[in-house]
Write a structure and sequence with these properties.
The protein is 41% helix and 22% strand. By secondary structure, it is α+β, with helices and mostly antiparallel strands. α2 crosses α3 (50-61) and α5 (122-133) packs across α6 (139-154). The longest helix is centred in the last third of the chain and has 16 residues, at 139-154. The protein binds zinc ion. Residues 98, 100-101, 167, 169 line the site of zinc ion. Its EC number is 3.5.4.16. Pfam families: GTP_cyclohydroI. Zn(2+) binds at residues 98, 101, 169.
């Protein structure tokens, strides 16, 4: 037997993830441990219900793990009066948590695409942003995941995603630089190939400000 053959990694199914998810009690116990680690008494009056509230908050902060972007973008509309020019939704607010420190990063997403066979409801772009934002993230990955979901679902001639966000792990700890923002963007299709289309995207984001 060849000992150099590595076993193939087994893909984790959604079901296995659910089974491995700890119980609510275990999650609350972990929060009590962190409170004690911070130096406080998890049994004092003001903190006694905190683990329950933190676990509830986590359900909300990380609700994106239980959602499917493809489902949200499933319905497209083709009767748009022949409209095939750029569709841009700008200033979509989002909040996420950085996967390195589990502290928030908060900002706005600007999402655009050039329709091919249809358009999606405008609110769907905001919902897709949340599906990925409500997970442990890096801003770079969040940008990529949003644009990939749009490409897969509606096959546009091109797409663009730009995120601007302030990272609390930079404002509250480490270098403590308050007010700095991080900008990421990603283009695909026509928007990746054509500088003029990119310029138009940036101009539309600034328009009327
Ligand atoms: Zn961080």
């Amino acid at each position: 037997m060849d000992m150099n053959v590595k076993p193939k990694p087994v893909a984790q199914t959604a079901l296995e993830r659910v089974i491995q998810r700890p119980s609510r009690e275990e999650a609350e116990a972990a929060v009590r441990t962190l409170i004690a680690w911070a130096g406080d008494n998890p049994n004092r009056e003001g903190l006694i219900d905190t683990p329950r509230r933190v676990v509830d908050s986590y359900r909300e902060f990380y609700s994106g793990y239980d959602e499917d972007a493809a489902k949200i973008l499933e319905t497209t509309f083709s009767e748009v009066g022949g409209y095939d020019d750029i569709v841009l939704v700008r200033d979509i607010p989002f909040n996420s948590h950085c996967e390195h420190h589990m502290v928030p990063f908060v900002g706005k997403a600007h999402i655009a695409y050039l329709p091919h066979d249809g358009v999606v409801g405008l609110s769907k772009l905001a919902r897709v942003t949340d599906v990925f934002a409500k997970r442990l993230q890096t801003q770079e990955n969040l940008t990529a995941q949003i644009i990939e979901a749009i490409n897969e679902a509606i096959n546009p001639r091109g797409a663009a995603v730009m995120l601007e966000a302030e990272h609390m792990c930079m404002s509250m700890r480490g270098v403590r630089k308050h007010g700095s923002s991080t900008i990421t963007h990603r283009f695909t299709g026509v928007l990746a190939e054509d500088r003029q289309e990119q310029d138009r995207f940036f101009a539309l984001i600034r328009a009327g400000r």
